[in-house]
Design brief:
It is a single chain. This protein is of the alpha+beta class. The protein has two domains: 30 residues; 191 residues, NADH Oxidase. The protein contains seven helices and seven strands, in the order αβααβββαβααβαβ. Helix 2 crosses helix 6 and helix 3 runs antiparallel to helix 6. The longest helix is centred in the first third of the chain and has 26 residues.
Length: 225
């Protein structure tokens, strides 16, 4: 009888010890670390008029991962800090800096910390299918930049978001998306700005609050030859 109780106790112990690992994958960030981005080179790149001439929407990508330098430059151009007072490369309504850039890779999702110029882990797992939203082979892009406006920053937390607040958030996201497109044109990267995505799946994966509004995403990669 003692042996039976011992076996049952051992099995329960194994189940209980395994359960936190299962739940942990849903609520924490196993196997992901902070990614320190390279210092952006603010003196290079192509002339602005050539960048405008080269900008285009591309929906097919090579499988190559982005080089660390290219990812660093892209994120800084999108919405990085460009002045000592913390202001950004992209303007925002009332300087609310309401838009966060989530970076979705095959390994997991990160959020761009513009002040520290690092990627902080959000969730482990490949969420590119949710970001692609079932549209063609777009989910094969090595990186997605997902633009999320936290409307509470626009209302200063004093009022519930209204239509005007949402318009401000959409405007700010659109400006950042344009920065992404122009940076890609300068860096020789392929991208397209999209609204299509599985928003419910992404909200859950990214653990978004009710005030955080999923607006746009840009798959990014090298052009497919």
């Amino acid at each position: 009888m003692k042996k039976i109780f011992f076996c049952i106790a051992t099995m329960l112990s194994l189940v209980c010890s395994a359960q936190p690992a299962i739940e942990k994958g849903k609520t924490e960030v196993p196997d992901l670390s902070i990614i320190t981005l390279e210092t952006p080179d603010k003196t290079g790149g192509q002339p602005v008029w050539k960048v405008f001439a080269n900008r285009q929407s591309v929906r097919e990508f090579a499988s190559d991962r982005l080089k660390p330098k290219d990812l660093s430059m892209l994120l800084w151009a999108a919405n990085g800090v460009n002045r000592t007072d913390g202001r950004r490369t992209a303007p925002s309504a009332m300087n609310a800096q309401d838009v966060d850039i989530y970076v979705v890779t095959p390994e997991g999702a990160y959020i761009y910390d513009a002040k520290a110029h690092v990627l902080n882990p959000v969730a482990a797992g490949n969420f590119r299918d949710a970001t692609g939203g079932g549209q063609g082979n777009i989910n094969q892009a090595p990186v997605f930049l997902v633009l999320v406006s936290d409307l509470s920053r626009l209302t200063r937390g004093n009022n519930a978001p209204d239509e005007q607040t949402r318009l401000f958030g959409a405007m700010d996201a659109g400006i950042i998306a344009q920065n992404i497109n122009l940076a890609c044109a300068s860096l020789g990267l392929a991208t397209v700005t999209r609204t299509t995505m599985d928003k419910e799946a992404l909200k859950k994966a990214l653990n978004l609050k009710e005030t955080q509004l999923l607006l746009l995403n840009n798959p990014v990669g090298y052009p497919k030859e």
